[in-house]
UniProtKB/TrEMBL annotation:
Residues 43-62 bind DNA. Residues 20-80 form the HTH tetR-type domain. InterPro entries: Homeodomain-like_sf (IPR009057), HTH-type_TetR-like_transc_reg (IPR050109), HTH_TetR (IPR001647), Tet_transcr_reg_TetR-rel_C_sf (IPR036271), TetR_C (IPR011075). It comes from the Bacteria. The keyword Lyase does not apply. This is TetR family transcriptional regulator. The lineage of its organism: Bacteria, Bacillati, Actinomycetota, Actinomycetes, Kitasatosporales. SUPFAM superfamilies: Homeodomain-like, Tetracyclin repressor-like, C-terminal domain. GO terms for molecular function: DNA-binding transcription factor activity; transcription cis-regulatory region binding. Keywords: DNA-binding, Transcription, Transcription regulation.
Amino acid sequence: MTVDESAPGPGAVRPGGRTARVRTAVLRAAGDVLAERGFAHLDLADVARRADVGKTTVYRRWGTATGLVADLLLDMAQQSVPRADTGSLLGDLTANARLVQRTLADPRQGALFKAVITAPTCDPKAADALHRFYAVRVEEWAGCVRQAAARGEVPEGTDPHEVIRATSAPLYYRFLTTGLPLDETAADRAATATAAAARAGAYTRDA
């Protein structure tokens, strides 16, 4: 579950100085467009105008809307909050679920995530970028399940990636398919259910 960075895509370099400021401005503008209008309306010329950057610069560096989304997802993965280490599986999963809940419940972040989640349905390269983003985030949090296994909280052979996916899956489902509020109660319920299932052996590789 690691990201292969041997062949970075457009905009994947992490430069300094003015180039870094341009990248920051463009990615911020791209996120605004995605949150406001969705992937289908992500236009590089519009992003350049919002970022106060020359169109040539944006087209030369990112090339396509998909290239821009890929770099935005890379940046989001790099800027994400590190995983918790509370000393218990339930505490760690609760921290994970509450982080997901806060992100999706935030008006701008929620709209942005909805845009990048739906983009892959019409663009294979966007799908690959999204898969890479979540591979990084799931692997970051998988460590808490490995620690739980070492403490004897879950059976040997528990798949850490499946446990982390199972924790956030109900929150994404509620977010994408209902108009119900996404609150801490929903987050805590998801974490509690996943921790109980993991302790019962539901996520062992044999299962």
